[in-house]
Fold AU RNA binding methylglutaconyl-CoA hydratase.
Amino acid sequence: MAAALGGLGLLRARLRLAAAAAATSAALCRTGHRTPPLRGGVAAAALPWAGRSYGSQAKEEEELRVRYLDDEHKGIVVLGLNRSHAKNALSKNLVKMMSKAVDALKSDKKVRTVVLRSEVPGIFCAGADLKERAKMHSSEVSSFVSRARATINELANLPVPTIAAIDGTALGGGLELALACDIRVAASSAKMGLVETKLAIIPGAGGTQRLPRTIGVSLAKELIFSARIVDGEEAKSIGLISHVIEQNEAGDAAYRRALALAREFLPQGPVAMRVAKLAINQGMEVDLVTGLAIEEACYAQTIPTKDRIEGLLAFKEKRPPRYKGE
């Protein structure tokens, strides 16, 4: 796996070159020149994973709990926001902890899927910690926003699938966190919105870019201009989230659905999952011709892996594959 994953960095560089080549090709086509084609990305007590089946336990005072799940959930890592006194608002310390956790996860080959959730009932994340921000000098505010934006980008660029479990309110930076995840699951009672214009500012951690890419430009403008808050049902209807679930008594319905979804990812080839995410993310930023070249380059990365050999052998022997991530 080390060789395959080590090649992802080289692959990213090749994809950038492919995009540049395709752009040049398009320009030449417009002037009448031809170029050759490119070649080459229930209650907690009833369900163990709801509150007890963790490989590592976190202290109560930790604002971010990083938990590696065990048994049938092995390979799933849960990032739990835990600032109950501040509604999980993004403080300098929480952003620092998240950056450190994400940095560790991106190089951990045992990680297969990351679930981002809240461990505070009724709230996902209320956005930036405005009380802390009010005490900052203007230069500190700019630095904090830059650090938060960078951390959310790091989350978006994790090489494994990420799922946001929204069991409560996700506003401003909280929704921007969720938008950085590959998939969003929410309880029907959850509230979501980019409300920054109420404060005479705009979303500054990716919201103006990721929301339009998720729900479309016109509707994203409407929500940002109005600072409107939507519930889980409306969020599902406009494509902001992938799944909506009726909230349960424990208040963790979205988290449970996210875990069930993450378990569907576990049996798949690890290298293929990482390269598939890279191909999709890179391809969505370019035209179709370039995107197809990116897919070709990414597909080539899966050919020499031991995972692919194991997958074909398991198919032939009619048994579940035993992937090692190689």
